[in-house]
Amino acid sequence: MKIVLDATAFFVDRAYEGEVYTSPRVVAELVDLRAKCRYEALLAAGLTVTEPSPEARQATAAAAEVSRDIGVLSPTDLEVLALAHDLSGVLYTDDFAVQNAAISLGVRTHPIQQRRAKKVKWKYRCAGCGRYYHEPGECPVCGSEIRRKRR
User: Fold this and answer.
1) What's the pTM?
2) Could you give phi then psi for residue 82, rounded to 5 degrees?
3) Domain 121-151 fold
4) What is the overall mean pLDDT for the chain?
5) Sorting pLDDT into bands at 50, 70 and 90, what band is 118?
């Protein structure tokens, strides 16, 4: 089984069975000494650091648009999701927005220390007048901020 690790996986001491992968952006985020040591240990045990294909990146961005999580996902989140999609692997993450986008993308996820996220639908509502929109921004009617709300 192919396993793709998000940055959270490097903060816990856990064994992973199968082929273990992560992305270069995840590695760049590891600034904590414990996380770096865990990375070195996993690297010695066969961890592969690789990038996803451009096609997987496009599919991931499209899925994040559908789930309406694109505004809260970092470039690292998108890269690790794309890698899991590319490898048809299981993504180990505790990030609920990543898990939600993974559902839309068809990527299986496994929580590391928290509960599994449930699929969430988002809507956008003006903080001033209460009108609903399809995306965040500024309300064309009253000028207030349009905020993301759970459906």
Assistant:
1) 0.76
2) -65, -40
3) Rubrerythrin, domain 2 (2.20.28)
4) 90
5) low
Q: Which tens digit of pLDDT belongs to each residue from 68-104?
A: 888 889 999 999 999 999 999 999 999 888 998 999 8
Confidence of residue 114 (pLDDT cuts 50, 70, 90): low
CATH number of 2-110: 3.40.50.1010
Q: What is the pairing mode between strands 48-49 and 19-22? A: parallel
Answer yes or no: same fold for 2-110 and 121-151: no
Residues 20-31 as b/e (b if ≥16 CB within 10 A, e otherwise) read: bbbbebbbeebe
Taking the CA atoms of 91, 93, 101 and 62 in sequence, report the sign of the dihedral they define: negative
User: And the tokens for 138?
Assistant: 């500024």
- The structural domains of the chain, with segments of one domain joined by +, span 2-110, 121-151
